[in-house]
Each structure stands twice: as structure tokens, then as C-alpha cells.
Specification:
Blueprint lengths: L10 H6 L5 E6 L4 E3 L7 E7 L2 E6 L5 E7 L4 E2 L13 E4 L3 E7 H10 L1 H27 L2 H12 L17 H8 L3 H13 L3 E3 L3 E3 L1 H8 L10
Antiparallel strand pairs: 1-8, 2-7, 3-6, 3-8, 4-5, 4-7, 9-10
Helix pairs in contact: 2-3, 4-5, 5-6
Length: about 220
């Protein structure tokens, strides 16, 4: 009795090639993928670069709600009936983005188990990150929120080794992401540098001592100046 053919579908190859319902775009720094209020009709995948998500309230206040890296999806709200984009997405550096139409995405999820597994793993990871961010915002000081953000941006806790933060991120952006003022972020960044937790050499380099300070119960973060 013949064995059924194995599914040789490679989800990353699928995402890296143009095909039915898929297109690939190259964006320069500062270019938008979509803006808040646009029609939500596709899902996007980052092949290269970094993407910033920002939201503007009805009162005109802008907040950075996320930074995405290669291997991550965004715009998936269209699969859940979201008619319009609720955020603006902007390239923080030269980026390569795959656009997958809503119909093509649904077809791939229904017909390609490996792709469905990849997307589900992304959703679960993102959901965990959202929960962690909420807990961080509710219970941690702005200083500790900044420390955690820097560790995340430098890839601490991931399989890849920690790296210098590759894109230039202003103190205003960091302040928006942790819900603090720019002056507080400036104070904490200077403190972290003085204590040897971070260094500047064209890019922000985060040292493991910052992770140790966050993890131990009575950390250097509590030191008074």
C-alpha cells in the first residue's frame, strides 16, 4: 500500500515569493505600509527590517504601541472582521514586506497545515507578549518598564544572542512605549549608562547586568541618586 505523499510545503519559502494574492514591497525608512483608517484587506509579513506601530487617539495624542522584527506578521486583524486599520505602520529602516491578501491568507491557513502552525505560533507568542506588557504597565515602575523594553529590543530571552539595538530610537519613542515623559527616560538612560547597564557607540548596547538588575529582588534599579 502506497504511503501518502508528505507535505513539502515550506511556509517561509511561501512567504518569500510572489504568487497568487501575494506581493513583495521594498520600503525605505519612514515609509508607511498602511495608515490608521485604511481598509483592512491583507496580512503582512516582515522579511527584513523593522516596523513601528503607532496609534493616534481621538484627541490627537500619538503613542507607539509596538516594534516588529523579521519573522513577524502584522495586520492580521482583517481576519477577525476588522474593517479598518486601527494603527499606522512605518518602516524604521529599509525593509522588505510580503503582502498577503485576506483571501490568500485564509486559503493558506485552511490548506497548508505547516503554514497554519507557523501563524498560530506567532499569535500565541504575541498574545503572551501583550499580557506581559499589560502586567508591566500596571505593576512596574517606569524605570523597570524602560529596562524591560531595552532588554526586549536587544533580543534578551530569545534563542538568538543579544544584539546592539540596530535602529536609532529616540527618547520620545521610548517614552511613548512605556507611558512616561521624555525627561524621565533621559534620566533613567543616563543612570543605566552610569551603572554600566548600557553603553552608546553609535547604537545602544544593552549589557547582561541590566537583566540581572531587573531579575534580582533588590536590584540596582532601586538605588537612589
Amino acid at each position: 500500500m502506497a504511503k501518502p505523499a508528505k507535505d513539502k510545503f515550506d511556509p517561509k519559502t511561501f512567504l518569500a515569493k510572489v504568487g497568487a494574492g501575494k506581493s513583495i514591497s521594498k520600503l525605505g525608512k519612514g515609509q508607511n505600509v498602511f495608515v490608521q483608517g485604511d481598509v483592512a484587506d491583507a496580512v503582512f509579513y516582515i522579511q527584513k527590517g523593522k516596523i513601528k506601530l503607532t496609534v493616534v487617539s481621538d484627541q490627537g495624542k500619538e503613542a507607539v504601541v509596538g516594534m516588529l522584527e523579521p519573522g513577524q506578521f502584522f495586520g492580521e486583524g482583517c481576519l477577525n472582521g476588522q474593517p479598518l486599520r486601527i494603527a499606522t505602520t512605518t518602516a524604521m529602516e529599509d525593509s522588505i514586506i510580503t503582502r498577503i491578501s485576506k483571501l490568500a491568507m485564509i486559503s493558506a491557513l485552511e490548506g497548508r497545515p505547516k503554514f497554519s502552525q507557523l501563524f498560530m505560533a506567532y499569535l500565541l507568542t504575541r498574545n503572551s507578549r501583550i499580557e506581559e506588557d499589560l502586567i508591566d504597565q500596571l505593576f512596574n515602575s517606569s524605570e523597570k518598564r524602560l529596562a524591560r523594553l531595552l532588554l526586549l529590543l536587544a533580543n534578551f530571552g530569545k534563542e538568538t544572542s543579544p544584539q546592539p539595538i540596530g535602529v536609532k530610537i529616540s527618547q520620545e519613542t521610548l517614552a511613548e512605549m512605556i507611558g512616561a515623559t521624555r525627561s524621565r527616560v533621559s534620566f533613567f538612560m543616563n543612570k543605566f549608562r552610569r551603572l554600566g547597564f548600557i553603553s552608546y557607540n553609535g547604537k545602544i548596547e544593552v549589557h547582561s547586568s541590566l537583566l540581572n538588575a531587573v531579575l534580582i529582588e533588590k536590584s540596582e534599579l532601586g538605588r537612589k541618586d
